Structures are given as C-alpha cells and as structure tokens.
Amino acid sequence: MAIPRLYWMLECPWCGSRLVVYDTYLKFVGTSNPNPAPGDGYEGPPLQERCTCTRGCARSMKAIGWISRAGARTMWLHDPHVAIEMTESQSEEWRRLIQEGGYAGNRDVNFMAPRAVSRADIVATLQAWRQGELNAEQVWAWAEARFLPGIHVDDWEGDSSVAREVLLELDNLPQNLGLPEDIPLHLEFLETPAGHFETGYRQWRAALNRIDWKERRLRLRNQPPYARFCS
Ligand SMILES: [Zn+2]
Prior knowledge:
The protein is an alpha+beta fold. The protein has two domains: 6-100, no CATH class; 116-229, no CATH class.
C-alpha cells in the first residue's frame, strides 16, 4: 500500500517564497515484502528536506500544508495538523503554485481554467459545438470549469452580465436540455450591445420559452447527459 501523493505547499524560511510539489511526504525506497503494510518501503528524508527554494537559498523548506487533489476546498496544515476551509485567496495561491509547479497536465487539474471569461471565449466554444468539434459533454465540462465563484467576465453592467448568463446556462446544460439547435439564440444574446442587458436578456428568455420542452424531453429521454433530467 502506497503513501498517497499529495499536493504539498512548501515555504522557504529564508526568503519566504513558496512552491507546490506533487509527491509523497516520505520517499519510496522500495520493499522486498510482496504484501507491504501501509507505509512500508517509505523512508526519510521528508519532502521539505528533499526540495529546495527556487531562488537558490541553501536552507531546507518548511511544509505549510497539503491538499489531496487540485481544486480541493479543504487544506491540511502541516503543523498543527488540522484541516481548514480555505479562503478564496488561499485557493488562488494553490492554483497559481500548482500551475507554476508544472502540474497543469495532471488529471485532477481542471480548475486551471482561466478565471476570466469573455464573450468571445463563449462564442468560440458555441461555434466549436455547432461545428461538431465539441460535443455536449465537452461544452458542459468547459462551462463547469469556468463558472466558479469570483469569476471575471468582461461585460458587467452592475450585477448583470450577458457572458455570465450564457455561461450559467451551459454550466447547467444537461438540466437545461441544451442542444446545438439553441446556439443561434445564445449567439444573438451574446451580441447584445453594452447598456442593453435587460432587453437582450428578456428576448433571450422569451426565445428559450418558445421551445417545445415537452417534445425535447421525449426526444432526449434515453440520451446522455440529458436522460436523467427528462422524467
Ligand atoms: Zn528562498
């Protein structure tokens, strides 16, 4: 049984710079036991002594804490060993350091999506969907990775944003039974001129309300990812 690899945040006690490594706390040195007990084969030195400051300080690092997967909301502090709910700025620091550590390719690192989403990004995604370059699941995952607390869109009008509304619609794509045939409605809404959110929004919702949802529920009742929302 292996010691799990975790995302560890380390800090240089000399210059204060931080880094994230994806590793086990102790180093695996091997074991001859074919049925090793948990932790067998792992030895020192601990992670913070194996890592060095990226600025070249000749001191061992200090462990700040770990998270089990990228995007986790709970962080385990190293000392004292307690779990804390992270603030948005702590999450942001993990995001940045995981990216700087070169782990953006890890399977669990989908929260690396840009924090800013523009209307143009959404238009490009909708067009890729229309052209069959993306399927519904992919569009949904794309929106899900971006519709996050604190999201930045480029078209706020007070508390309203066309980009935010369309992204929310796509974030709920299966529940909303969203199909490529609706794309022109979204694109039209995304062309709403600045200062006309209310009008654009009203027209968009009215157009969506004209869809025969009963027919659509019947049509999609056996089709993932919609099926479970069609009863
Ligand atoms: Zn340093």
